[in-house]
Amino acid sequence: MAEQPILVTGATGKSGRRVVDQLRAKGLPVRAAARGGEHPFDWNDRATWDSALEGASAVYLVQLDGTKLVRPFVERAVAHGVRRVVLASGRGIDNPNYAKDSTGMLDGLVDSEAAVRESGLEWTISRPGWFAQNFSEGFFADSIRAGELRLPAGEGAASFVDAEDIAAVVVAALTEDGHSGQIYELSGPRAVSLTEAVATISEATGREIRYVPLSVEAYIAELVQLGLPPADAEAFADVIEPLRKGTDEYVSDGVQRALGRPPRTFAEFAKATAAAGGWPS
């Protein structure tokens, strides 16, 4: 497989670009595909699919939320002779009470998982929980930069997983035997509250950062005041619900099973990000 390129979709995203970096660190040929990436690829433009798949031995699929495009893409991959696929999915899919699905994402995720399982390819599914990188380069980064994280999450916690660990699991599944047919739920080694998370970031960065718990109503009102439509503000509040309810506190064994080592702690993530100059300032 090493002589043929490995296709990485979503190659500029949190997990995708780390998968690209780790594959290249192993000296493996990579086709980094994204709308703004090295190889042009757009889920909504099927004319870009064949050139992305041509000659590829394996594929990392980062699906487009709320769509059912993975199934026809996998069919195209089979026709191109792809032999192995790793799908980025989501934690909590098997739990109907995990979170409100106000944006209609769940149907797409379920269909995508079914598509790879039914494809006849060697398949692996990655189901990460909340990314630790949401604090440094994602959902919470602007608030960390401002020094105050204001969320309707109460005293809830999550077992935040480092995207470097997610990428390492994906790379193992793309390049090694023994991962076919596996669903890896990925988390950090223990649950971390938002209060503890911002304190850990404060220690790593030398900056004072506060967590301010809000009611759902107050959070929605703040977002609307900032210019978001009420429906979008409510959808953001729904995203936070698993933190508030504690449904993402549980620890999964996917990193240990896939890599034979424990996942990185939130403190290790915070320190490594600080050392790399990755914290917003």
TrEMBL record:
Domain NAD(P)-binding: residue ranges: 10-176
InterPro entries to which the protein is assigned, alphabetical: Ergot_Alk_Oxidoreductase, NAD(P)-bd_dom, NAD(P)-bd_dom_sf
Superkingdom of source: Bacteria
Signal peptide boundaries: none
Matching PANTHER family: PRESTALK A DIFFERENTIATION PROTEIN A, PTHR43162
Name of protein: Uncharacterized protein YbjT (DUF2867 family)
Organism expressing this protein natively: Amycolatopsis magusensis
